[in-house]
Design a protein that fits this description.
Blueprint: H1 11-18, E1 24-27, H2 34-42, E2 46-51, H3 54-60, E3 71-75, H4 81-87, E4 93-99, H5 104-108, H6 133-139, H7 142-153, H8 158-168, H9 174-184, H10 197-208, H11 210-224, E5 225-235, H12 238-251, E6 272-274, H13 284-289, E7 297-303
Parallel strand pairs: 1-2, 1-4, 2-3, 4-5
Antiparallel strand pairs: 5-7, 6-7
Family: Belongs to the methyltransferase superfamily. RsmH family.
Enzyme class: transferase
Protein name: Ribosomal RNA small subunit methyltransferase H
């Protein structure tokens, strides 16, 4: 079992936007440690890494001792990064970086079940525990499957695909699922994404509750950051980027609330101010060295001294799945 070398996406513009890099940072999506190493090399005094994937912890054992305690790794999810940082001795931190979605090392290990490039069990669990994609594919009712594909994968043929999956059960492997989806959609043209791409994305997001994690992780970052601290988020598709953008707009006081029927309440003091006025995308040099960066977007904001607040999942545009009728798809919303 081996993974391809991990290339951190948009690391160079991230470090430029966050310069000078100082103090203690939290890398909430540690993976192969590329961002953590980059932050230390740029001047951070310490990086607290967080990852729920046991593979990330096993891989780090080989090189982490060479950083002599400047990088520490903790097991968990970034939705609890404020607590994890405090437990590691940092009540407030100078920066938080989140690299959303799936890492190359997870994709490239076929038996993890994230990809349809090779046949493997339908798994997709980042933590390697709990419900798998196979559990959802074979256990959820047709309506719930359709909702997952539409809300989490923006798949317009969600009902047709869900109907075909239910008819073909049991579906146990990645290639079996990919073939079912491909039969439901028009023939793939040269250069187009595989027809099953959106279905696999949707199931992965459901298995790992990625949108719920993001909504809670942004709030946890706001609580953890010291005044002047920086939040840097790299996203890879439109829903993630929309959630990050709306969160930062709301917490910066740049999205009005209320209507002529419901007057505006007294505005909260802004908790963030934008560092990047719009999302930063990879340049030609980065795309040449790392084609997986093509859909990446980076947003950076600076924490103010205002108290931390709350933003609802609806306000930031998070797709809400009706979990009352599914065996999978994430924990119930608060």
């Amino acid at each position: 079992m081996s993974a391809a070398p991990h290339i951190p996406v948009l690391l160079r513009p991230l470090l430029t936007a966050c310069a000078p890099v100082r103090g203690t940072w939290v890398d909430g999506t540690f993976g192969a440690g590329g961002y953590a190493r980059g932050l230390i090399e740029a001047g951070a005094a310490k990086v607290i890494g967080i990852d729920r994937d046991p593979l990330a912890h096993r891989m780090a054992e080989e090189w982490l001792p060479g950083f002599h305690g400047t990088i520490v790794l903790r097991e968990g999810t970034f939705s609890e990064l404020d607590r994890i940082a405090a437990d590691a001795g940092a009540e407030q931190v100078a920066g938080v970086v989140l690299d959303l979605g799936i890492s190359s090392m997870q994709i490239d290990i076929a038996e993890r079940g994230f990809s349809f490039q090779k046949d493997a069990p339908l798994d997709m669990r980042m933590s390697q525990s709990g419900e798998s994609a196979r559990d959802i594919v074979n256990g959820a009712d047709e309506g719930t499957l359709a909702d997952i594909l539409y809300l989490y994968g923006e798949e317009r043929a969600s009902r047709r695909i869900a109907r075909a999956i239910v008819a073909a059960r049991p579906v146990d492997t990645t290639l079996a699922l990919a073939e079912i989806v491909a039969r439901c959609l028009p023939r793939q043209k040269p250069g187009e994404k595989h027809p099953a791409t959106r279905t696999f994305q949707a199931l992965r997001i459901a298995v790992n509750d990625e949108y719920g994690e993001l909504a809670q992780g942004l709030e946890a970052a706001e609580r953890a950051l010291a005044p002047g601290g920086l939040l840097a988020v790299v996203s890879f598709h439109s829903v993630e980027d929309r959630m990050v953008k709306r969160f930062l707009q709301l917490r910066a006081g740049r999205m009005g609330q209320g209507s002529r029927y419901a007057p505006l309440a007294e505005a909260e003091a802004p908790a963030f101010e934008a560092v990047t006025k719009k999302a930063i995308e990879p340049d030609a040099e980065e795309l040449a060295s790392n084609p997986r960066a093509r859909s990446a977007k980076l947003r950076v904001a600076r924490r103010t001294a205002a108290p931390a607040g709350r933003v609802s999942e609806q306000e930031i545009g998070m797709p809400i799945l009706n979990t009352s009728r599914t065996t999978g798809g994430g924990r119930p919303r608060r």
